[in-house]
Amino acid sequence: MNRSEKLLQLKKEISHVIIGKEDVVEMIFIALINNGHILLESVPGTGKTQLAKSFAKTINGSFKRIQFTPDLLPSDVTGIQFFHPKEQDFQLRIGPVMTNILLADEINRATPRTQASLLEVMEERQVTIDGETIPLPNPFIVIATQNPIESQQGTFPLPEAQMDRFFMQISLKYPTFEEEKSIMKSYRSNTPFSNLKNVLTLEEIDEMKEQVKTVTISEEVEDYILNIIHTTRNHEDIQLGISPRGTLALMRASQGKAYINNRSFVTPQDVKDVAIYLLSHRLVLTLEASIKKNATQVIESVLNQVEVPVEAGAGQ
Predict the structure, then answer these.
(1) Rg for the chain (alpha carbons), in Å?
(2) Which of 27, 30, 25 is nearest to 57 (CA)?
(3) Domains annotated on the chain, with CATH
(4) What is the pTM of this model?
(5) Which among 23, 203, 205, 212 counts the fewest CB atoms within 10 Å?
(6) Following DSSP, what letter does each residue of 104-122 receive, concatenated?
(7) Other CB atoms closer than 10 Å to residue 133's CB: what's the count?
(8) Which chain positions lie within coiled-coil regions (predicted)?
């Protein structure tokens, strides 16, 4: 079974629990094989937790969830050294970050200090507790959520530098009428989560992580990626454009898109397909532009503005 068939099977399994989100599953998979973390934005009740749990189950990975609140401490995330009265010595207790898929629920409710502790773990893929360094499992991916319509009172929005550390941002929209009807039928008698099957192993994902790096990018497509990036840095609606970290993320996600379509090369269409997910959350719009537009609309205008290279087999 090739990777496209594996991905189709993965989508089919998760669609028993989360209906109508095949494109989202595809993006999460691209992030997974690129060691990338995800920021999920959605109104409450659209299945963010179920999506993360379902993904962990289908790849045979471990799953943990942290509910972020203002009183959550960094040690609640990473772990602590504690004194064991019976043993009369200090023992290490590693926090919930010791997992394959970590759901950081409502990350913007925690204080900046606690947010920073998680973001450090995301970057280093290890925890240091009282001088002892412990590597995290492989793969390790954080799916952080935040509610876009929530009042800013009592929340701590992630600064631009920390937003940039997320590989991609995905907005979960409301289901359509027909999708919601299917949800009602699926959940009428029981929760389909318990019937989910394992599709991939962690070893197979490790192999895919290496294989995706071999997907080639022509000079024309490299220039196309750079033209998109540099246009964001000189755009009248954008105060802060895409960083070099964002450039690399767009390149790797484009490789991932080609890879899951069983291609050994990246096309301009691959770049366009992933650009919104990779770039929108990295922008800072000017005050004037932010009144009339959102970041997604600005990225769409950038993609329309940049000339697409004509390349053999580019799938335009």
Answers:
(1) 20
(2) 25
(3) 3-172 (3.40.50.300), 213-305 (1.10.8.80)
(4) 0.90
(5) 203
(6) EETGGGS-HHHHHHHHHHH
(7) 9
(8) none
